[in-house]
Amino acid sequence: MTFLILLLAVLALIGLISWGKVHAFLAFLLVSIGAGLALGLAPAKLLAAIYQGLGDTLGSVLVVIVLGAMLGKIVAESGAAQQIAAALISTFGTRYIQWTLMVAGFIIGIPLFYNVGFVLMIPLIFSVVYKYRLPAVYVGLPMLAALSVMHGFLPPHPAPTALVAQFHADLGLTFCYGLLIALPAIVLAGPVYGRTLRGIVSVPLSGFVAPPLPEHALPGRWNSFLSSLLPVLVLAVVLGSQALLPPTSPLAPTLAFLAEPGIVMLLSVGVATVSLGTALGKSVAVVMDSYSASVKDVALILLIIGGAGAFKQVLVASGISNDIATGLQNTGLPPLLLGWLIAAVIRVCLGSATIAGLTAAGVMLPVMAHSPTNPNLMVLAIGAGSLLLSHFNDAGFWLFKEYFNLSARDTLRSWTAMETIVSVVGLAGVLVLDWLL
C-alpha cells in the first residue's frame, strides 16, 4: 500500500505540473499534504515535516544560489563572461566547445559543491550560447554532467565522503577508482549524448546574459578569469591547507569556516564587487541595483526548490525510505548491484541523492560485514545509484529547467536522461573494476 501511495503521489505531481499547468510550488504543497495524510502522518507532524523540508532545503541552497546569482550578474554585465568565452573560443574553436566546457566542469567540480559550480558556470555557458548562436542545452549539458558526476562519485563532496567513513574505505583509492569511472560517464552523458539534443530550443534566463560590449570596454582577461573563478581558487587553497595541516591545528576552525560554500561565495561576491564593479568605474549603488535584479531572477526557482524539499521531507517523515530499503534487501542480488539498486530506487522516490546514498549505506553496512566486497567500490556503486532518473522531486531538475527555461518534456529528455546515463555507466564501471580487481 505504501508503494501505491508513493506511485500515485509522483503521478499526481507530474500530472499537475505537466498537464494541469499548476505552478510547481503549489503542486508540491498539494501533493505533499495529500501524500502525508495518505501515509498516516498526523496533521501536526505533516505540517512540521513540510516546514522542516522547506527550511532545511532553502537553508542549504538559498545563500549559495542568491550569491551565485549576484556573482553571475556582475560577471555577465561587466563583460567578464564575454571575455572568458572569447578566450575559450579563440583557443579551442566552436567545434570543440562541448569538450572545452566539459573539462572546465570536471576541474571545477572537484573542489566545488554542485550548486556552487552550477550558478558559477551559468553566465559562462550563456555567454558562449548568445555570442556564437549555439544551442544552450547542447553547449551546457557536458559541463553540468561533469559537475554532477563529481558531486555523486568523488570526495570531498558530502555523500561520498560520508560513505567512505561509514564503509571504512580508503579515501585516496575511492577517489582514484572514481576518476576511472567518472571519465567515461561524463563523456557519454555529456558530449556524446549532448549531440542528440541540438534541436532543443532553449531561451535561457535573460538576467544572466548582457548585451555584447565593445572590446575596449571589457575587463582584462586575467581579471575576468580570476574574478569569475575565485570560488574555485579559494576552496582549492582551503582544502589543500586542510589536507596538509593536522586536525588539531589552531587554523582548523578558520579553515572549516572558509570551506563553507556560503562563505566562499560571499568572499567572491565581495571581491567581484570591486574588481568587476567599482574598479571599472561603476558606483556601488549601480552594482547593488544589479544584485537586486539578480535576486528577482532566481526567486521563483528558490520557491520550487523549497517545494521539492517539503515533498522529500514528508516522505522521509513517513519512513518510506526504510520500507523501500527493507523490501529490496532480501532480493539475493550481488552486493554492489544491490547497493546501486537501493540507492537508485530511493533517489527516484525521494529526489535527494544525499538521502538515497546515506540510506542505502545504512542498509548495506550489515551486508558488507559478511561480504568480501571492496568497500571503495561499494561507495561508488551507491553514489552512481543515487544519481539515477532525476525528475520532478529533485531540486537539481528544477535548477536546470528554470535556468535554461525549458519545458518539462525537454528537461526530462536532456537533464533526466543525462543523469540516468551517468548512473548506469557508473554501475557498469564499478562492475568492470570489481571483475578486474
From TrEMBL:
GO terms for cellular component: plasma membrane. The chain crosses the membrane at residues 28-51, 58-76, 96-129, 136-154, 174-193, 225-245, 265-287, 299-320, 340-365, 377-400, 412-436. Its main location: membrane. It is found in: Cell membrane. Keywords: Cell membrane, Membrane, Transmembrane, Transmembrane helix, Transport. GO terms for molecular function: gluconate transmembrane transporter activity. It is a multi-pass membrane protein. Belongs to the GntP permease family. This is Gluconate transporter.
